[in-house]
Specification:
globular, 23 strands, binds flavin-adenine dinucleotide, 15 helices, Methane Monooxygenase Hydroxylase, Chain G, domain 1, alpha/beta
């Protein structure tokens, strides 16, 4: 085993492409359920479809053992409200999310998640994932229930967010998927969804893909299909050499699931929503600097002179003790916790946080930079829990942060941990490492929009289901993704059992095959995928940024279209990896277009969606208080109006529980 430099010095050249390349060779896979994306949602969908006795295939862009946002680990699981210690019900949690977002989140998806999140977590436990303090390391701690040995985060009274030892959750899921007999196809770059008769809006009967190692072409024919490809990154920012695109998320999150579904006629909602990019990667490696948020919730922050920054409750009232940071205050039934895919919190569900006037007080000289995390001010159990248990299991922290710092001699019993030094406004949110301040201010990230689904987690297209966190309207984070994946897989399998044979359209397959290999046939002078992606991100930032109007959006649409038909059309791929990345660029453009077209349709500004129309500056006019689902019919965009509470209106029943009983199949 040698390093890269040793290899290049010895060989005198970079290595040859190491796999045999067979562009155009066709492989056919016939299955009952096809899952596109083998992340945590996708593998749960696969395992649960398989349990229904059908044949299941997963087409994964990377390698399903560690791929995806959830592949690097997890330290806390949201939405497990039916666990035996919880004081929160599915109805309470769903109402809290829905009311906080003033209706701009899918209440039905939230309800499904909270009904089944705890069951899903217990199934993970059966797969060998540690969800309890089985070794009694934290016996007697205030955040632990000594009977069940469950440990809780954020709100120790309400006990609905569970701390988990999830650094190996993905390999365990992968092993389970293999054990139950799921067929996993890694390194697949999907190019389209196949529809009956090749028609937009038709029943989905599979997908085509290119293998990004061999270049071979795959035709998947399936009775039912689940999309579980995770988020859509690389849209507003792309600078992989400074880790901008991948420090928090994954490079493979290129919106391909959304793009191929949009082209097939699937309906989306709230894609116009966005917010400042906090996790873009121009900031710091995830969780690598001191902060008091998420994994580090409750951590005391002190200034350069050791003066502690005060905390406030959800109503902005001062909090005196460390213990109170983990308790709901007067007027609150419970606190929701952070990282659940909502951007607004009503005060009565908001978390305790560092005081919001910290930037102002730094400016006045009351607190002196740099700031530090002082874990010594916590109880011994709390300190050990945050530093070793949480940081040791959270995604991307076990080796780069916990292990590296421990080996370098960091001792939380006596050392301070420095926060990033930024302009004072960088401290307006306690997640300092993801601060928007050292990030270009024009960067945006999508905010809560995604696939519109019914109570079966089915899209408007027959045969197409969604399992996801971020890109499912009403989804959330890690636990939510497992849970919706599990539910979608179950429903896809039930449908597949009675669905007709999947007949793919030959013309659609041939057209797709020709399109897929276009970049291998272009002049070697053509652009590469990185240049194209940078250009897309520039167009998105300039024409569909924080503020936009009809003209900028239409110009942006024109530029994206021209980029696609000129530079991207003539771009060159010298191997199957580059081919995959260029095909992704088509999808990134498609998602950009989808966002701009949705934005054109909302002729009003909207505070919840972070949507600012310069030509319609009035914020939240009541007549625009509605969803605007968007889809393509025969290549033309169709937008309709939908009430925010559509999930409790005909044809559905008026209560969450009635609908759940009717549709869940549990
Ligand atoms: C560092 C980090 C820490 C986090 N910590 C927490 C936490 O503690 N608690 C919490 O609740 N949430 C946490 N999250 C969020 C959580 O990980 C995600 O919400 C969750 O993983 C989403 O699940 P998913 O299956 O929808 O997407 P992913 O886990 O991203 O999986 C998507 C899968 O689809 C694949 N894919 C992508 N494109 C394609 C394509 N074109 N074709 C085929 N396959 C494709 C990907 O390779 C991947 O395997 C964290 C995220 C990160 C990045």
């Amino acid at each position: 085993m040698s390093t890269w430099h040793e290899y290049v010095q010895k060989a005198g050249k970079v290595p040859e492409w190491p796999y045999p390349v067979n562009y155009g060779k066709v492989n056919e896979v016939v299955t009952d359920v096809l899952i596109i994306g083998g992340g945590v949602a996708g593998l749960q969908a696969a395992i649960n479809a398989k349990k229904k006795g059908v044949k299941v295939a997963v087409a994964e862009r990377g390698h399903a053992k560690r791929s995806g946002a959830g592949g690097a680990g997890v330290d806390h699981w949201h939405g497990a409200v039916t666990n035996p210690c919880s004081r929160v019900t599915p109805q309470m949690y769903t109402d809290a999310c829905y009311d906080s977002m003033q209706g701009y989140t899918g209440g039905h998806v939230r309800y499904i998640i909270t009904k089944e999140g705890w069951d899903t977590l217990q199934e993970c436990e059966q797969m060998g994932i540690q969800i309890r303090d089985v070794n009694d390391e934290f016996k007697g701690a205030v955040f632990r229930d000594d009977e069940t040995k469950l440990m809780f985060a954020y709100d120790y009274r309400s006990r609905h967010v569970i701390r988990v030892w999830g650094y190996d959750i993905k390999p365990k899921l992968y092993a389970e998927a293999k054990r139950v007999g799921v067929d996993i196809y890694n390194r697949m770059m999907p190019t389209c969804l196949l529809t009956e008769g090749g028609k937009q809006g038709g029943r989905v009967v599979g997908a085509t893909a290119v293998n990004t190692r061999t270049g071979e072409f795959y035709v998947f024919r399936s009775r039912a299909t689940v999309i579980a490809t995770g988020g859509a990154g690389r849209l507003y920012d792309f600078a992989p050499e400074v880790t901008a695109s991948s420090s928090m998320g994954t490079m493979n999150a290129a919106g391909v699931g959304e793009a191929i579904a949009w082209n097939a006629g699937a309906e989306f909602v709230c894609m116009e929503g966005s917010g400042p990019a906090r996790l873009a990667g121009y900031a710091y490696a995830p969780y690598s600097m001191a902060n008091a948020h998420n994994t580090y919730h409750g951590t005391p922050i002190v200034d350069a002179d050791g003066k502690e920054v005060p905390w406030v409750d959800g109503f902005n009232r001062p909090i005196k003790t460390v213990q109170e940071r983990f308790q709901p205050s007067e007027g609150q039934d419970f606190m929701l916790g952070e990282g659940i895919g909502i951007s607004r919190y009503l005060e009565r569900y908001r978390n305790n946080l560092l005081t919001s006037d910290l930037p102002e007080r730094i400016r006045k000289g009351e607190f002196k930079l740099p700031l530090y995390a002082d874990l010594t001010r916590l109880s011994e159990a709390e300190r050990r829990c945050i530093w070793s248990m949480m940081v040791g299991n959270e995604g991307k922290t076990r080796i780069p942060i916990y292990d590296t710092m421990s080996r370098a001699g960091f001792d939380p019993d006596k050392d301070l941990f420095q926060a990033p030094v930024t302009a004072p406004q960088g401290y307006d949110h306690p997640n300092f490492w993801s601060t928007g301040v050292n990030t270009p201010p024009s960067l945006r990230m999508l905010g809560g929009g995604g696939f519109l689904v019914d109570w079966n987690l089915r899209t408007n297209l027959e045969g197409l289901y969604i399992g996801a966190g971020g890109n499912l309207f009403g989804g959330g984070c890690h636990g939510e993704s497992h849970t919706t994946g599990r539910y979608a897989g179950r429903h896809a399998a039930e449908y597949a059992k009675t669905a007709p044979e999947p007949a793919a359209d030959r013309n659609q397959i041939e057209a797709e095959k020709a399109r897929a290999y276009n970049a291998t046939k272009q002049s070697k002078d053509g652009n590469g995928w990185k240049e194209i992606n940078v250009a897309i991100a520039r167009i998105m930032r300039d024409y569909c940024g924080e503020c936009k109007n009809e003209q900028t959006l239409n110009l942006g649409l024109r530029l994206l279209s021209e980029l696609q038909t000129t530079e991207l059309e003539s771009a060159y791929a010298s191997n199957p990896h580059e081919l995959g990345r260029l095909l992704e660029c088509h999808s990134v453009i498609t998602v950009g277009e989808l966002i701009m077209k949705t934005a054109v349709g909302r002729k009003a500004s909207n505070s919840i969606l972070g949507f600012n129309r310069l030509d319609y500056p009035q914020m939240d006019p009541p007549e625009w208080n509605k969803l605007l689902p968007i889809k393509q019919v025969d290549g033309k965009v169709e937008v309709r109006d939908l009430p925010l509470d559509f999930h409790l209106k005909a044809p559905y029943a008026a209560s969450y529980e009635e609908n759940y009983q009717k549709y869940s199949g549990a």
